Amino acid sequence: MISASLRPTISHPPLLPRGHGYDVSALVWHPPHGELLRSTDGRELWLRVIEPGDVAALQRAFTRLSPEDIRRRFLHAMSELPPLMAKRLCNIDPVHESAYVLMDESVRPHEIRGVGRIYVDHTSDNAEFSVVVEHDWSRQGLGVLLMQRLVDDCRSRELTEIWGYVLLENRPMLELCRDLGFTQRLVPSEPGVAQLSLRL
Asked: Residue 188 pLDDT more than 80?
């Protein structure tokens, strides 16, 4: 489990799973580099905003995802993350999107272990989310941490809702969002897909 808390400037209470006993006391805030996180097994990650220089690391992270992980994240199969797509994902338009990475700086080159992202629709004051965590780093509370950061981001933008599409077979994400208070509804036009949403 990753032990973390909100950055000090956030006034909203932490959005943490009910009844899961998450410890939110061990975050070290080092702006602008990010937040230093330590897992229970002693591994460290930096949570920070994605950067244009992360293209190669993002492509390497993609190669470590299983076909199942890729389908759960993109809702269809992909054999690779093309350079142009990787570049686009690392060069965000901050008016319309945010993206955060969990960076492992204990190895060379540095590696991305997780990514959380929102795409903002200003006309309806909401944002669509996506979260992916590398398998070897799963069940450490990283998905919760990334989702919390995305919720904080949406609140700072004064949006009214955060939502995302999730495959019904993706039980870990369904359970994570349920524990965070998201509501779930089926998507009639997309069998096997649920829309998860949280009013802010």
From this structure: yes
Q: Give the list of residues 6+ apart from residue 110 with CB closer than 8 angstroms, or none.
A: 57, 103, 104
Structural domain range at position 166:
2-199
**Mode of pairing for the β-strands spanning 111-121 and 34-39:** unpaired
Q: If we measure between CA atoms, which residue out of 193, 192, 174 comes closest to residue 182?
A: 174
d(C-alpha 170, C-alpha 153), whole Å = 24
Q: How many C-alpha atoms does 45 have within 13 Å on its Cβ side?
A: 27
| Residue located via tokens 């509804």 | 185
- 103 close to 44: Cβ distance less than 8 angstroms: no
Residue type at 124 in one-letter notation: S
Output the domain CATH number for residue 176. Answer: 3.40.630.30
Quick: pLDDT tens for 82-116: 999 999 999 999 999 999 999 999 999 999 999 99
pLDDT category of residue 23 using cuts at 50, 70 and 90? very low
CB 25 within 8 A of CB 95: no
Residue type, 66: S
- pLDDT digit string, tens, across residues 49-80: 999 999 999 999 999 988 877 776 666 667 78
